[in-house]
Each structure stands twice: as C-alpha cells, then as structure tokens.
Amino acid sequence: SKCCYSQCICLITVTNSEFSRAGDFLIGGLFEVHDTNEMASEFTPVAIDCSKQPFIVTNYRKLQLMRFAVEQINNSTQLLPGVTLGYEIFDLCSDTRSFPGILDFISVNESVRPWHQLQPRPGNMTSKVISVIGTYSSTMTRTVAPILAMDFIPLVNYGSTSSAFSEKVKYPSIMRTVLPNQQMIEAMVTILLHFRWHWVAFLFDNGEYSTDGADLFLKKIKDTEICLAYSDEINANTNFSEMFQKIDTQKINVVIIFAPGRTASMVIQAAINLKISKKVWMATDAWAFNRKLLEMPKIDSIGTVIGIIQPKSEIPGFHDFLYSLQNISGQGEERVCSQMCNCRQLTTEEIVAADPAYSFPVYSAVYVVAHALHNLLQCESGQCNTSTTVYPYMVLAELKTSNFTLLNKTIKFDENGDPEFGFYSIVFWNNEEAEEVGFFKMYPFVDYYINSTKIQWYTNGKVPTSLCSQDCPVGSAKQQNGIHTCCFDCIVCLNGTYINTTADPYTCVNCSATEWSTTASTSCRPRSVEFISFEDTAAIVTLFLTVGFVGCLCLCSVSVFFYFGKPQEAFCILRLLPFVLFYTVCLACFVVRSFQIVSIFKIGAKYPSVQRWWMKYHGQWLVIAVAFILQVLLMLISYTSVPPKLYNETVLYPEQIVLACDINRAAVSGSLILCATLCLLCFVFSYMGKELPKNYNEAKAITFCLLLLALTWVIFATIFILYRGKHLQTLNALAVLSSLYSFLLWYFLPKCCIILFQPEKNTPQYFQGLIQSYTKTISQ
C-alpha cells in the first residue's frame, strides 16, 4: 500500500510480517521502536527514516506483546469466537514527523477523506482500524490524539501518563490502561512524607510528561511539609557542575528525576563524573527499570536509588511466544523491525531480558478492545453476529463501560478514561537489580507498604535525612525563616500556652482560664479548684474559736462563717458586711468608754459643764448611733455601686484556680476610714488616761487592745501582698477573730477576773475612792 504525507510518498511493505496481520477487524499499533532527535528539513518535506535511528529493544518488546495478545485472542474460543483480529503496526520514532502510519489508520481505500463524506451510513466505508494501541510518550500522544479524534477512533494508551489526557473535552477518544501522573505524584509524595524527606530537588525536561509532573508535584506539596528547594529543566546545555553545586550548597539530600530515560541518563552520568554522592535519587517508571542505568559503572557511588514503577507482570505464555518466533526465523537471523526496512541482529534472549515495564498496560489495552468488540458483535453461545457494522465511535462508547477480569485484575475505567486498576511497585536499586521493597495502590482504596529494612542506605542502615531545619523540640513553635515553610527557627512556648503541631505548628496557643501549662507544653492541664471547705482543719479550728463571742462581738463573728465553703456572691457580701458594721459599733463603744474615763478623771474636774452636757444628752448613745448610721450609709453606697463578686485567681498559681471574692477597695474605703477614725479617737482618749491611778487599768487595757488590732491588720496586709493562695481566706478569718479576741482577752477577760476573784474592787465605793484620790493629787 501507499500512504501520502504532504508531497512525500513512503513505500510501506505490508506483507505478513511483525508489523501487519490480516483479520476481520484491524487494530492499529504505534510503538517507538526507534528514537530520533534529528531536526526537520527546512527545505524539503522529507519523511523521517526511522530505521536509521537508534533501536529501542524495550519498545520492540512491547510491540511483540501486542502481537502475542492478538494471537492469544484469535486462538480463544471464549473471546470473539469465529472472529479474527488483525493489526497494522507502525514505528512512531518521531514526536512530530511520523505521520504516514497515523494517516494510514484513518484512510479509506488509501485516501483520507473529509469527515462529512464518511458519515456512518450503509454503503459508506469506515476507517481502516477500529481502534489504535499506543503511544508510549505523552508528547507523541498529544500529536497523534487530535488526528484520531477526528473520526473518534479510540486511542487505547499504554504509556502516556500526562494529566492533560484526562480532559475529555480536549481528548475525547483517549482511554488509558496506564496510571496517570496524578497517581505517580501521589505515590512519590507519600514516600517523601513516609521517610520525612521535606527538602527536595526536582529535575525534569521540556517534554509533556516531565512538565506535567512538575506542575502536579508543586500543587500536591502545597499543603504538606514538603518544600521544593530546587528545580531545573534539564537539556543538552545544562551546566551539571553548577546545578549540583547549588543542590549541595542547600544541603538537599533527595533528588527527584521526573523525566524519560534519556534525560535521566544524562543526569546520572553527570553525577558519576562529578563524584556526587550521599544522595537519595527518586526514579519514576520512565527510567527506574532502565537496564543501561542499572548496569552503569560506579552507579552505586551516587547514593541510594528508590524507584516507583509499573509492577513486573508475568504474562503467561509470552516468553514461549518469543522463543517460537526465534525457532521460526532461526538464531541470529535478521528480522523485520520496521515497516520500512530491516534494522539489526536481535536474539530472543535480548528481548526477554529487556525492561518489562508497561507489559500489562500493553497486554490489557489489546484485551479491552477485544472485549468491546465482543460486546458490539453480541458474541454469545460460541458465535458472534459478524453482519454488524462496527464503527470506531461505537467501539469508543463500549470501551468506556468495560468491566471484565484479566489476570486476576478487574479492568474498568473512570469517567475520564483513566484505569481504576493497577498499582505501583516501590523498588530499590541493588547490585544491578531493581529489588521490590513495597507497593502503592489506589484501588479500591489508597494503601502502601515499604519494607525499609530491605533498603541498603548509603548511610549504613540509617534512613537519610533531607531537611532545611531540624525538627523543633517538643513544646516549641516554628517561626518561618525565609520563603520556605521548611526553614524555621524554634520558639519555646511559655507558661500558660501550648503547641498543637498537628493543628498549627507555628502558634503557641493560650490555655483557657480553667487550664494551665508549664514551659514547652503540648497540651493544657485542668487547674485544681481551691477553696477552704467547712471540713478543712483550719476552718474547724477557726469556727470553734468563733463560738466564744457575745453581743456585738458575736454579730461581728458571723462574718467568719462565710470564709469557708465554695464561694458564692452572697458569701462575698457577708464576709465583710457583719464584721464592719458591728465592729464599728464595738469601736464606737470603746471610744465612748475611753472618753468617759478621761472625762471622769480629767475633764470633769477642769470642765464640769462638759461632763454635765454629756450626761444630760446621753452623749454615749448619740456617738454610737451616729457611728452606726453613718457606717450603714457608707456600706449601702459601697455595695450598691460596686458589689463584691466572685473572682478566680489564675495568674499567680498556673496549676490552680483559687476561688475568691473580689471586693473593690475604693468602694469600701469610706467604711474602712470610719473604722480607722474610731480606732484613732479611741487610742487618743485611752492614751490620755495613761497617768490614771495604777490600780485602775481600763484605759491601758484599751490602748493595748488597739495596738494588737493594728498589728493584726498590718500583718494581714503584708501577707495579702505576698500570698494569694486558698489559705488567704483562712488568714482573713483569723484576722477577724484576732480583732475580736484582742478585746475579749485583754479587756473583757481582766474585768471577768476582777468580778470573780477581786469582788471588792467591783463596788461603787472603790471606784469613788479612786476618783477622790486622783482629784486630790491633781489639786495638790
């Protein structure tokens, strides 16, 4: 046959050969058996001669695998019974200039007609092939797919992993049996996170496969702990010495090469030449099984190579098929490697030993087409309806609903034409072999496993690290240093704060009011609630001592009962109100008593009219009443404006919550000033009586009581400034009791002793005698 490409005619031999087989239905095949980098002619439209380009045995192996799958189907009595599949295979050795084979696929009677002349109606011929298997590279697929899409010829792809082909609006006729780049990047990021390699370099070339991988990698690591420390596009002009110097300067220990084998070989060879070592190299399935790289001299010197590959799939009967071809053609005989010419001597052993990657994707690609055709021809009960006219678009529609089992794998596709089957093997390069050490699968759910003990790290057993900054100590927050989140300083979280590295590793969070923490904490602990209960020993002793009071002192002592138990707002009010109110009456009484003593012994003699006025108008009751009423008004104003309230002390004791009462000092200052004024007057009057008869000690007793009272509250004020624990309330209650006991013990108790043990001194005659004696002394 002849195929026209521009003004060039390429003679193509299509006799029964490795590239062609007759059948009821034809499947196209596109394999890069040769590879070329030569520039297109600028003057004449010359088709490229693939046979003169470097031969790729691994791709030739894929071609043979397609042939084997077709022969296996043709020999099956279950799949397409009575129907023979044929194939037309072309060597697609150039990304942009190998069009003769593609045009041959869409030709009808050796010519390509406008689409409107090929409407699927009776009597019209359709394209030569019902589907095409291929191609391997993403760049070639981007070139081929639009041409085949014109006639909706399904392109069942076995090797192109670019995420672009998942866009059905742009590529409606592509179905893939190979996992797309999204899954490869997912597996790669999972491994990086597993080993905590957060500081990495990413190398790629300008091909569709590489640039797509670079874009996906950047998107995937955006919300992770991984940082892209260095990236570079590799080409023939790359300065590898400068590149590796930058990588070493930044202390990057993990290098990802997301590129075809040709580009990866350039990088690895440069690393060996430049004596780059102590690196972890991450290989994609494009070069992880590359035999030339595995066997490259000094390959072990560069460090540790971890690969993510399409798993080795043993295709039953394939090796026998290859050896049968050898037996037919004879050992060492030239075989046809291209539809254009013979290429070279090749043995079956070389084909068997070639990189087995993508074996199952090629094998399954042929089978999905066969199953689609099987359904279209309504094959059942050992026969098919061969009178059915099959158009490529019908095959495409059937491919989308594929659901069958092949080699214990369920074959089906998602809405983007991507496979919902398959997984990756994780391998380690060990002595010229790619040893499997784990797996990563996506279906029916994401799962992975890595046996790290099988990996011989260049660090002699210890997993290498690749970090910009070492992990912060426990209880420290990260403070980003520079543009990368992986580079940071560590700030220790202070008392009362904690760090939750899972939620936010950059912020020390304040504990709530009911919690506390020490320095460098990762959580807060509940504060213990502290108050003096009625069962507390200090409370029991204090309350026992309170029982001994009567009169105003008894009413004052009521306050003590409200210093214990869990504080309430009513407790806060009653702690101060009874004591201040009735202690004011008590102090007023002592003021009156002090004044009366001085009046009797001193003022009465010198100023008798004052004493008469005092006696006539009952001055003592007037003073007591005025002091009491004034204190009631002051307390009423205080509690109305700023009433006491509950207060939780959490600052001084971070591990506790001390329940207390907050009494506004400014609000009660008037009441306290009144009490202080009464104390001062009492002290002045009692001090004036220091020269009274020695056997009359009442004024001295009052003075001593006042000194004890002042000392008590000075001590309590000092403690209040220095200590705010739960026992402060007990001390406050004791200060109240001390104020009461100072009068009880040093004023009332001596009077009781006189009444009980010296009754002769407790008579009006004895008291009158003291007055007369003191009066005579003054007059003399």
What keyword list fits this structure?
rod-shaped, single chain, 21 helices, disordered N terminus
Structure write-up:
By secondary structure, the chain is α/β, with parallel strands linked by helices. Helix 13 (537-546) runs parallel beside helix 20 (728-757). It starts with a strand and ends with a helix.
Alpha-beta classification? alpha/beta
Shape: rod-shaped
Number of helices: 21
Largest sheet, in brief, is:
8 strands, mixed
Report the span from N to C terminus: 161 Å
User: Widest sheet: strand order?
Assistant: 10-9-11-12-13-16-17-18
- In percent terms, what proportion of residues is strand? 15-25%
Identify low-pLDDT runs. 1-16, 121-125, 328-338
Number of strands: 27
How much helical structure, as a percent, in the residues?
Answer: 40-55%
Rg from alpha-carbon coordinates: 51 Å
Overall pLDDT, averaged?
84
Subcellular location: Cell membrane
GO biological process, one term: sensory perception of taste
Keywords: Cell membrane, G-protein coupled receptor, Glycoprotein, Membrane, Receptor, Signal, Transducer, Transmembrane, Transmembrane helix
Main location: membrane
Topology:
Blueprint: E1 2-5, E2 8-11, E3 20-21, E4 25-31, H1 57-74, E5 85-91, H2 99-105, E6 131-133, H3 138-149, E7 155-157, E8 174-176, H4 181-194, E9 199-204, H5 208-220, E10 227-233, H6 240-249, E11 254-258, H7 261-273, E12 279-283, H8 291-294, E13 303-309, H9 318-329, H10 348-353, H11 359-376, H12 392-399, E14 404-406, E15 409-411, E16 423-430, E17 433-441, E18 447-450, E19 476-480, E20 488-492, E21 497-500, E22 504-510, E23 515-516, E24 525-526, E25 528-530, H13 537-546, H14 551-557, H15 569-606, H16 608-616, H17 619-641, E26 645-649, E27 656-662, H18 669-688, H19 698-722, H20 728-757, H21 764-779
Parallel strand pairs: 4-5, 4-6, 6-7, 7-8, 9-10, 9-11, 11-12, 12-13, 25-27
Antiparallel strand pairs: 1-2, 3-5, 13-16, 14-15, 16-17, 17-18, 19-20, 21-22, 23-24, 26-27
Helix pairs in contact: 1-11, 4-5, 11-12, 13-20, 14-15, 15-16, 15-17, 15-18, 18-19, 19-20
